[in-house]
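Milestone M4 deliverable, item 7.
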Amino acid sequence: MENEESTLRQQIKENLIQKANLQQQIFDNTFAVFESLKEILHEMTSELNDDLDESLDKRVRIEYRDRGKFEAQLQIASDVLIFSMHTNIFEFNREHIIWQNSYVRNDKRNSYCGLINIYNFLSDSLKYNRNSDEGYLVGRIFINRENHYFVEGKRQMSLRHNNFGTSEISKEAIIHIVECAVNYALEFDLLVPPYDLAKVVTVEQLNTKIENSKIQTGKRLGYRFNSDDI
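Output delivered:
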């Protein structure tokens, strides 16, 4: 019994050392990427404002906002992109297509990744505190222990799973991801909600609308948000 406990205790220590070190390394990699992402968002804001100074209506805002250690915001006209780094480390589930990649199959440690989510909201949702408005996950970036990356998202944002493990994430790669996200948000139009969804309104909703413009809104409110939108 004592030997069994000693063996189990040793296994716990080995697992703790391996997993803790691995996860800390991935967290550090992901955080470094997120810091670089913030710098790129700030630079892109300045560049776009300079380039469009004479051709864009002054009321149209292009603005970067640092929302804290793990969150950043880019407002472009009526759209807002929220970049949010998760503080935990993840592994892909067994049904995920990434397991078809030999880089992941050959070394399970490569499957553990940090995660940066990209959400698209309407700027008015934040401006008028419409807390019930819907935002949409348009992309997510995975970074592993070797700084290799994989992107899941809408068409032009996706990076084929079989490319995972072929190159490390770089400033150029981050710029491309951000530009794809911005372009997607601008082309992802706000649709008129289905008539049946809006045909009945309560007095409370009407009063709320008059006071705060808080009737629920979302780009696909009342519609199915499909993976092939745009």
